Every structure is written in C-alpha cells, then in structure tokens.
Description:
By secondary structure, this protein is mainly β. The protein has one helix and eight strands, in the order E-E-E-E-H-E-E-E-E.
Amino acid sequence: MYKAIVLTVILCLPSIALGQQKRANYVSFDSNAGPENLFQIVINVRLNAYLLDDDNFRKYVSGVGVRPAVAVSTGTNPTYIVPPTKQRWHLVIDNGGRSLGGNAGVRLFALVGDLPRRPPE
C-alpha cells in the first residue's frame, strides 16, 4: 500500500475570473475535511478541480470570480487534493462551462490509513 502522497497543486492562487454568469456544467462534492484528509479524484478526461470554502462556492455558483484554496487540473489519474485547514469544503469539478464529457469519482480518505493502489472500479 502507498503511504506517500504526490500532489500537483497550486496553493493560494490569486482570484480567478471565471466569468460573470451563473455556472452550468459542473459537479460539486461537499464535506467537512482538513489536513488529515485526502480527496481522491478519478476521472477519464482532463478537467479543472477547485477546493472552495462556503463563501467562494456561493460566488462560484453565481458566476463571480473566486479564490480557491486549491486548484488543479486532473491531468493524472487519480488526482489528490489535501484541504489546507479543517472546515466545510466544496470540491468543484468543471470544464470551463462546457459539458463535462466524463464521469468523476471522488473519495475522501483519512491519512492515518493506507491509500488504494489503483482507482476504484
């Protein structure tokens, strides 16, 4: 089992202007999580994933620019995100307003155990 985690993340991004209209074509998963947790994203196409707090999630849905805690491109499969602080988080997966074109699987792990060797089937 893997105990090491390799992350490709961009922390503390400046505001991202994601348009000024209500969002469509996104999927969101919400959970109370913190640095002791790990989101695993398994998807068969390249998409964007954002970890947003409640305030930024409301802004995202209404089309206002947001400041994600973490933003990644799902270029590798699986992709992992560790929340920077303990709180309620919204993991948003989108394709810039276009159709998602794939199925996303998201799992939340506690970092005290082993990670799976391969994506769930």
